[in-house]
Specification:
The chain is an alpha+beta fold and 266 residues long. Helices cover 54% and strands 9% of the residues. It has one domain (13-263). The chain contains ten helices and six strands. Helix 5 (140-158) packs across helix 7, helix 5 (140-158) packs across helix 8 (206-216) and helix 6 runs antiparallel to helix 7. The longest helix is centred in the C-terminal third of the chain and has 26 residues, at 174-199.
Length: 266
């Protein structure tokens, strides 16, 4: 998913400084003040860990996520080099509960997201448990797909696609903006498949794990679980069928040129 929009609580840098100042003066916990401003309980904030050239997390699941990120860097560096470009890898921020990004304040409820303003992808590792328990999509490759999808948004940002889509969304209606968001998400799915194809990490059954995960988090499946019916014009990520189709296209082709969702009918 892209940067958090309309979900969680967005706090400007100045607002955060003000909250911290008030906390210092009053002796209140900053999270208590955040809760009061937000009108409800705030998520707990733990010190985030960044994974990139400077270091990697020490826990096993964090190391796995870092290894996947390193693999995406290898693949996309080669892909960009073939067309004369230079890939600038993102940083991955592992957090628990909530995190402050350049795109605003994100909580675990937002799910994994990429922020184009700081070129970082944000991941609460507890989402992997939710992926298995709530969505019925366990497995290492299902988890790797989630990371590779967010890296796909970074690739879109580097190619200038994200900026063009954002400009178009600002000019269009809400429904048109949602349709563009769907194309962005489907393209990120396809790019995740391209990575998987070129990384040579796939083993027997891995592709099915990724496809099962893509299907489980389709907008239609989520809406059916939450409200019992679907509203296609409100979709922002695409249906289960769409998501598996585009992930499969990337998996089968390993070709970034096969990921032009904007030229397709979807």
């Amino acid at each position: 998913m892209g940067a958090p929009r309309g979900r969680g609580m967005a706090i400007s840098g100045g607002g955060l400084i003000l909250i911290l100042a008030l906390a210092f003066i009053t002796g209140e916990n900053p999270l208590t003040l955040l809760e009061a401003l937000n009108g409800g309980p705030s998520a707990s904030v733990n010190e985030p860990q960044e994974s990139g050239p400077q270091g990697a997390p020490s826990d096993q699941l964090g190391q796995f996520a870092s290894a996947v990120l390193g693999s995406t860097e290898d693949v996309w560096t080669q892909v960009f080099a073939k067309s004369g470009g230079r890939y600038q890898p993102p940083t991955m921020v592992l957090f628990s509960g909530a995190v402050e990004s350049a795109c605003g304040f994100g909580s675990a409820a937002v799910g994994p997201f990429y922020c184009p303003l700081d070129s970082k992808l944000y991941l609460d590792l507890s989402f992997f448990d939710e992926l298995e328990r709530r969505f019925g999509a366990p497995g290492d490759f299902a988890q790797a797909y989630v990371i590779a999808h967010e890296v796909g948004h970074h690739v879109q940002n580097q190619l200038g696609i994200a900026g063009k889509v954002q400009n178009a969304q600002q000019r269009g209606s809400q429904e048109q903006g949602n349709a563009l968001s769907v194309k962005m998400e489907l393209q990120a799915d396809c790019l995740a498949g391209v990575w998987a194809n070129q990384s040579k990490m796939l083993e027997g059954g891995d592709a099915e794990e990724g496809l099962r995960a893509a299907s489980a988090i389709g907008d239609d499946q989520i809406q059916r679980r939450s409200q019992g019916y679907t509203v296609p014009e409100s979709w922002t990520h695409g249906s289960s069928e769409m998501r598996t189709q585009w992930l499969r296209r990337g998996l089968d082709s390993g070709d970034i040129n096969q990921c032009d969702t904007f030229a397709s009918g979807q």
